[in-house]
Amino acid sequence: MRLTIMIALYAAAILAAVGVLFGPLRRAVDPERKHPLRVAVPILIVLVMGAFPVIGAVTPDGPLCWFFQKWGNIFLGIFIYFFGPLLILSLCLLIYGLIYRAKRHERWRPGRTISAAVLAVSLIATAVLNVSGWNTAHDVKVTGYQLPKEMLGLDEPMRIVLISDLHIGVNSGTELYREMVEKVNEQDADLVVVTGDLITSSYGAMRHPEEYAAIFSEIRSRYGAYAVYGNHDVDEPLLGGFTYIEKEKALRNPAMESWVRSCGWQLLEDEVTEVPGIDGMLLAGRRDESKPGDGIDERLPLKELLRDTDPDKKVLLLQHEPTDLRELGEDGVALSLSGHTHDGQIFPGNIYCRIFTRQSYGIKDWGDAKAIVTSGVGYYGPPLRVGTISEIVVIDLN
User: Fold this and answer.
1) CA 34 to CA 218: how far, in whole Å?
2) Which of 25, 188, 280, 286 has the fewest Cβ atoms surrounding its Cβ within 10 A?
3) Model confidence over 143-171: pLDDT tens digits?
């Protein structure tokens, strides 16, 4: 039922977009209505490409599914940035037409030149935003924060590198992650932490997991690397980035845990551990809030997870989604590290994220604790970043 509703809403959006496109397209390429194919062919292309995400959602996991998902994601990036400007310009022309009619008591419609200009602006906008967005998504930046070492009960300075939201999937290539590993190793980290969404809802879509594991195993750090899972580290079908199955049915691929180990990362699932060589600090890792995985309904409450910890030791918390922020300090957390938000990833998602989420990006005080949220390295859905960056985070405790 949920899938049916999602397909219906998505189909309505595609048809509405085609409706917006039809008028200016016909006026620009076939004003005398003598060459219907000039209009029919572009619209047919939109409808065919628009079907790709749906086919990818209903096709069983495998090469055919991944093909449609890959090109469906690319279509969605084009769709957003072509039809967005087209809709805005069409509304402006509609408002102008209504004002014109009210003043002159006669009807006004845009001619061929104006319609061609509207289409040209929309095409240029989608070309510029998709090309620049692709380049931004594949250019890993380094973001730094300075904190006092006493915050984590440390006697000596320490450098932590945070990476998150790798989102290896149908649109991924190894080049991005090789660059990421190079940037991580340039930091001479004491500790590396990975806060989830290693894959994008399909372990098989990595195609060659051993290649990615070999890349990640090259990460160097003095005290090792630790990881937690995210909400997409399960196998589940997606339609335009949204799943249509209950979280209890979103199960972890059996090969996932051994793959994480082959990356050289120690996995924490609602666990607290001492990092050998680091005194005064405890490292806690939580299961994901929305997708705990393995059929588990709920993760441990933060208070219960930290109940038996040494009160004299400071807690560094890894959790994929930045949740329970107001309770961090009360429950004994000194510093929380998260990802998940992508800082909105593509405009105007970043504006929405910053308005409607408690913390979409950066560093923020929450009572006696601090939380850092990274925009992450990879991308979800369209292989773009517009208005955000791909980053690793370096935290210097001095």
Assistant:
1) 63
2) 188
3) 999 999 999 999 999 999 999 999 999 99
